[in-house]
Amino acid sequence: MGQHQFTARDLRALIIPLIADSFLSILIGMADTIMVSGCGEAAVSGVSLVDSISNLLITVFSAFATGGAVVVSQYLGRKENDNAKRSAVNLIYISMAISILMTVVIMPFRGSIISALFGTIENEVRAYTDDYFVPILISYPFLAIYSALTALSRSERKSFRTMMVSILMNITNIGGNAILIYIVGLGPRGAGIASLASRIAGCVVMTFLMLNKNEELNIRGFFKGPVSPFLIKKILKIGIPSGLEGAAFHVGKIMVQSLVASLGTSAIAINAVAGNFNSYSNIPGNGINLAMITIIGQCRGQKNIKDVKYYTWLLTALVLIASASICLPFMLITPQVINFYGLESDSIAAAIPICRLCLLMCCTIWPFAFSLPNALKAVGDVKYILFVSFSSMWIFRVGGAYFMVKVLGMGVEAIWYAMYLDWIARGIMYSTRVLRGRWVKTEVI
Questions:
Q1: Residue 335: CB partners within 8 Å, gap ≥ 6?
Q2: Distance (Å, rounded) from C-alpha 260 to C-alpha 48?
Q3: In angstroms, rounded to a whole number, what is the distance separating the alpha carbons of residues 438 and 419?
Q4: Which residue of 18, 21, 185, 259 sits 20 to 30 Å from the alpha carbon of 165, by its own alpha carbon?
Q5: What tens digit of pLDDT does each residue of 319-363 get?
């Protein structure tokens, strides 16, 4: 490893905290679902429906944070620290503006949005969605700023710090859930308020840390400006295609979720549980994927093409190994884990094979479909990612799901079969792109 830009120690110091951070981030959503399960399947379904919308909006925040991280990482690779710092400040401006606009626009129309996306759902489920949605919407500006600041910290290779802040957020969220759901009796509304409190805490702590004058990317003088159209354009060059890619992905997921809703409350709950299995199994991969942006971005900023290619395949291989180490043992305890969700016995029986197949696909196909595009993104090859994501999502995941359910008469398992077709298509197209090699010549700064 000595002849490469990052040593083995550098990689461990960056990746291990990011995997832990990825787990902690997923835990917040899982905690809401699991801890409201005591309120019944309707509560689990209500939280799940809101989360499907929320994940779309969070993807937009993450896209702009990623755009900023790519630009900053490449400037740091070139040792242009002043441009890196100015890019960091402008990323915060973008994140604030987008998140506040989303909250203000969506808040008065939240009920109509739920109805338009999911159609006829049970009244009890609808009431729970509104209870949970309001505090989640209020939390978006805090979450967007937090996402931007953690992306900047990763660009500085300070992933241990983001992990510690995630621990604080999880303590706040789980503690808040315990009090507001079990003691106060607020149900899904309590889960939403706890998530809001955790996001405020994360935003405040990260802002305080990034204001330190000794910070490489400190944001001191943030309120003085200036806004730089030049740097914002560079961030948006990555952020907009990434946001569109993520939006297309999650709009497709929401359409599929609407299809699931038409299958009944039990199907919604089964799908929510399988979604948590999917999230859990991809934790190590998501952590390594985040590291890709920093590692490959800095290599590309230094025009070290050899290491761009080297780390692309090394990190993808690590995702495969790490995913297998999680998924394969987890298959053995799948029934016991599903029992924690409080589903009916028939729902549990239906969920077990769906969750086990998900674990298998996550440790074999998922890395090629979702790790390789992070390498492309780190050098700025985002238009190709947008094309692949949009076409594969709508042809295979959405089109395939509707065909299997509406034409073939299949149940909730069809949603997951269609998703795996989407993964396979993405994996083939991204692997082909990387092997051809032209992507490394993409210019961002």
A1: 348, 352
A2: 11
A3: 29
A4: 185
A5: 999 999 999 998 999 999 888 877 788 888 999 999 999 999 999
**For residues 77 and 300, is the Cβ–Cβ distance under 8 A?**
yes
Give the whole-number percent of the chain exceeding pLDDT 90: 44
Answer whether 276's CB lies under 8 Å from 30's CB: yes
Phi/psi-derived region of residue 68, left when phi > 0, alpha when psi is between -120 and 50, beta in every other case? alpha
Determine the residue type at 35: M
Q: What is the pTM of this model?
A: 0.81
Residue 103 has which token pair?
């909250």
